[in-house]
Amino acid sequence: MIVDLGCGRNKRGDVGIDVVGPPTTKADYVCNLGFEPIPLPNDVADRVVAFDFMEHVPFCVWTDAGHRRTPVISLVNEIWRILKHGGEFEMRSPAYPMVEAFRDPTHVSFWTLETLRYFTNGYGSFLTEAYGITARFRIVENKMDGSHLHAVLQAIKDPNAFLDELPWSAEMDTPKLVLSDEQERLVWALQENNDQLEAIVRDKDKIITLLERLLEEKNQEIHRLRNPLLVRLYRKTRRIVRDVARRNNRH
Q1: Does an H or E element contain 18, and which?
Q2: How far apart are the C-alpha atoms of 10 and 46, rounded to whole Å?
Q3: CATH number of 2-157: 3.30.70.1050, 3.30.70.20, 3.40.50.150, 2.115.10.20?
Q4: Sign of CA dihedral 215, 218, 247, 199
Q5: How far is residue 79's CA from residue 125's CA, in Å, rounded to a whole number?
Q6: How far apart, in Å, do the first and last CA atoms of the chain sit?
Q7: How high is the pLDDT of residue 204?
Q8: For 88-92, 122-126, 149-153, 215-219, which range has the lowest pLDDT when averaged over its residues?
Q9: Per-residue confidence at 244, pLDDT binned at 50, 70, 90?
Q10: Are 27 and 20 in contact (CB under 8 A)?
Q11: Distance (Å, whole) CA 202 – CA 204
Q12: From CA 247, how far away is CA 251, in angstroms rounded?
């Protein structure tokens, strides 16, 4: 099932949701997105799309009672909730530094190429928890397309899913692992490093920075915990580093 958020009059997919109903839009559901839960059950959507909509949801507001709310975070959490494991969220929004991001007076959030990393644990578990982010995504695509940010995020609901990407051999096979909070945090940190390393093959300075951060912040913890999943992810990271170095040497 494909869910179109902010569908307007051009609904893409099976279910359209908007803040305004027919006849103004072709919405199947009317929902104050970002402020109300999406009216769909957990794990039902294969894909969620939001084109020229997310910029109309505010990053932060204060209620009359003086409480702070973060509607964009609430909405992305809801998108993750209704997606199936492995389902994708695709968004297009005008983004910094293009003028299109700022000229419309109804734009109340301003996106950059770095914004979506908050939903991949890219800035660390402390901020993820402090900001109330329950969504866990992997970045599939994240680029500027003219004036717009075009991004595709994959919903990850089981950290053990990373095992499926590893080069298993018969003697290395182990059951799915139950991870402690500390181990899960390291899994996400390592995967984030892997994603970034693969995405910036031609940028040697960033590769060096990421490698130094990995060695300084993660290496001792990985060996101390002695968890086979973490060790395999660390080996994958080393393979990526070697491959990136070889490709850079050819340019």
Answers
A1: strand 15-18
A2: 19
A3: 3.40.50.150
A4: negative
A5: 20
A6: 43
A7: 59
A8: 215-219
A9: low
A10: yes
A11: 6
A12: 7
* CA atoms within 13 Å, Cβ hemisphere of 205: 0
Residue 31 in contact with residue 71, Cβ under 8 Å?
no
Phi, psi of 133, deg, nearest 5: -85, 115
Helix (H) or strand (E) holding 24: none
Residue pair 114/73 in contact by the 8 Å Cβ criterion: no
- How far apart are alpha carbons 55 and 245 in whole angstroms? 38
Compute the distance between CA of residue 54 and CA of residue 51 in angstroms, rounded to an integer: 7
Closest by CA to 209, choosing from 195, 219, 196, 222, is 196
d(CA 2, CA 179): 32
Distance (Å, rounded) from C-alpha 73 to C-alpha 68? 12
Cβ proximity of 149 and 112 under 8 Å: yes
Instruction: Assign 134 to helix, strand or coil.
Output: coil
Contact 1, 35 (CB under 8 A): no
Q: What is the mean pLDDT of residues 177-192?
A: 65
Banded model confidence at residue 154, pLDDT cuts 50, 70, 90: very high
Question: Which part of the chain is CATH 3.40.50.150?
Answer: 2-157
Q: Which residue has the tokens 């992305």?
A: 76
Q: Is pLDDT larger for residue 195 or for residue 4?
A: 4
Query: Which amino acid, 28?
Result: D
